[in-house]
Structure formats: C-alpha cells, structure tokens
Write a structure and sequence with these properties.
Layout: H1 3-15, E1 17-21, H2 29-36, E2 42-48, E3 60-65, H3 68-80, E4 93-96, H4 123-179, H5 182-189
Antiparallel strand pairs: 1-3, 1-4, 2-3
C-alpha cells in the first residue's frame, strides 16, 4: 500500500471513530467496549494519554466503530441523553474524532513540516516562557483535582455498593416472609386476597 492509499484508509478510520471524554479514571477498555457495543460493533478502544497531568490517568478515548453511521448515531444519541459508564456520576461526552487525536496517524504525503529553534532575543521566546510556567501551574492544579476526584468517586462507589447490599437484604427478607407462610397468615387476618404470582 503506498502513502496515499495508507492515508486514505486512515481518513476512513477517522470517520468511523468517536472521541469520548469526561470519563472516570477507573474506566477500563472492557467497560468502554461493553458500554458502546449496545450501539454497534466496537472495533477498538484507544485511551488517549493525558500528558498534562503527572499521573497520566486517561480521561478520554477513541472508540472505533464498524462504520461511520454507527459513530454518527452514537454522537447524536449522547447529545440528547446523558450516558453513564460504570454508574459513575458523570455523563460521558462524545464528538467526532479528528486527525490530530491519533498518535499512530500516517504522514500526509501532501504536507510539509518545518521546525526552528527560538532565539532568546526573539519576541516569541517570552511567550514560550510564559506558556512553560502556565503548564507547570496547570499540572500542579490538575494533580490536586485528580486526587480529590478519585477520593470522591471511591466514596460514591462505596455508597452505591452499600445501597445495593441494603436493597438485596430487603428483598431477601421479603422473600423469607413470603416463603415461611407469614404473608398468608397476615392476609387471612386482614381478610385480603394474595395472588400466587
């Protein structure tokens, strides 16, 4: 396959891929596949590295579907209805994927890139220094927020687990009352009719 055909094939892949973000750091590859397989056939899931945070916990992914129509339908559906993954208290957002999001993208045969060093006397050098300081500040803030967010999600997951256990115990209690005949005795006492279903 020559460079042009390879690039054309890559462009087709981009059309059938959606970009999802606002995910919980606890979400895994299999969880994303299970969530999106209900819309169509998921071909691959690629988590995007988060270079702005020191822990590199992915919060976004590229989900490649079988065809562009499935990808469009998912994006349209998620614009209307909030979509939760793993019961996390945050709706995942979906958008069409863009070329720049793929770290394995082939070189565009029609594009030429030139790089140059910035001299310390260049006016852009000062701008680059400010950006460098801003990135360090952002990394520290993002690290703190991530730590707090993970604590909050662990707390919510524990609460969710406790609620499920409590509800399960209630259903077991109700089943026990029904099986030991207490329900029939109470119905007879209060002159009520009980359906066997």
């Amino acid at each position: 396959m020559d460079a042009k055909e390879s690039y054309a094939s890559f462009l087709e892949k981009v059309k059938r891929t959606i970009y999802i973000d606002n995910m919980s750091p606890a979400v895994s590859d299999s969880v994303v596949k299970a969530a999106f397989n209900q819309f169509g056939n998921v071909l691959s899931v690629h988590f995007i590295p988060n270079y702005l945070e020191p822990k590199n916990v992915p919060r976004a992914a590229l989900v490649e579907m079988e065809n562009p129509k499935q990808a469009e339908e998912i994006i349209a559906e998620m614009e209307i209805y909030p979509f939760m993954i793993s019961g996390m208290p945050r709706p995942v957002r979906a958008r069409p994927a863009k070329l720049e999001m793929f770290d394995d993208r082939p070189k565009n045969p029609e594009r030429r890139i030139q790089c140059r060093w910035i001299n310390s006397k260049d006016p852009n050098f000062e701008v680059a220094q400010k950006i460098k300081k801003l990135v360090k500040t952002h990394a520290a803030e993002a690290s703190f927020l991530l730590t707090e967010q993970l604590k909050e999600e662990e707390k919510l997951a524990a609460q969710h687990n406790e609620t499920l256990k409590a509800n399960f115990r209630k259903f077991e209690l109700i089943d026990g009352v029904h099986e030991d005949g207490t329900t029939k005795q109470l119905a007879h006492y209060y002159n009520m009719h009980i359906s066997d279903s």
